[in-house]
Amino acid sequence: MRITLEDKGTGLTSRPQSVSESPAIENGGPREGRPRDVISMRFLREVRVAITADQDIVTARKRGERISRDVGFSSPDPTFIATAISELARNIVRYATRGEVILRVIENETTLGIEVVAVDKGPGIRDVALAMVDGYSTSGSLGLGLAGVSRLMDDFEIKSASGRGTIVTTRKWRRLRMPEPGPPDLRTQG
Question: Are strands 155-161 and 165-173 parallel, antiparallel or unpaired?
Fold first, then answer.
C-alpha cells in the first residue's frame, strides 16, 4: 500500500510526509500484493457525482459499487469500495458542504482498477497526520475516518491546504486470479 500525506497551510505538519509501505511491512511483516506502476495507468471511464447533501452520498456509493462490479471486482471488494466512497462523500457534506466524487475505471499493464477522487473547496484539514490516526474524529462520529478508507483501498493520497480544500485520491486494483493447478506439463519433463 502506498500512502502519501500532504498538509499545506497550518505549519503543524509543514512538509509532505510519505509512507511507502504499511506499518506491518515496515516492521518486517509480509508484503501483500505488489507495487503498482501508477505512471503507466490509463483512465477508461469517468463518472462525476456532485456532493452537496446526504442523498448524493448514496448516489456516489451506488454508482461506485455498480462500476466496480461491472469491471469484474469480486466480493467483498465492491462493498469495500462503496464504503470508502461513502466515508469520503460524508466528509465532504460534513466539513466542506459541497464537493465532488470522481469515479474512474483505470488500468495498468496487468489489471483493471477503480480510482476514487474526492474534491472539495472547504476549510482543509488542519492536521493531516492526526486525521489519519485510527479513531480520530473532529465531529465525534464513529465512522471509519480517513484511516479506515486507506485500509480498505490499495493506494491512498491526501492533499489539503488550509482555506483551499482537500483532495483525496484512492485506488482499488482488481485481484488477479491465479491459474488453477493442473497436471504437470509433460513436454517440460526430461
Answer: antiparallel
Residue 88 resides in a domain: yes
Kindly tell me the burial class for residue 119, based on how many C-beta atoms sit within 10 Å of its own C-beta (0-12, 13-18, 19 or more): buried
Q: Look at residue 92 and give its three-state secondary structure.
A: helix
Give the Cα separation of 30 and 180 in Å (integer). Answer: 24
159 phi/psi in degrees, rounded to 5: -130, 130
DSSP structural state of residue 131: H
Nearest by Cα to 21 from 36, 39, 7: 36
CATH number for the domain that contains residue 116: 3.30.565.10
Among 126, 156, 135, 119, CA closest to 19: 156
Could you tell me which of 10, 31, 13 has the C-alpha nearest to residue 22? Answer: 31
Domain containing 157 equals 2-19+36-177
Residues 44-66, mean pLDDT to the nearest whole number? 97
Per-residue pLDDT, 73: 96
pLDDT in tens, 5-40: 444 443 322 223 222 333 333 333 333 444 444 458
How is residue 145 written as a grid cell? 475516518
148 falls within a domain:
yes
pLDDT (tens digit, 9 = 90+) per residue, 53-62?
A: 999 999 999 9
d(CA 52, CA 58): 11
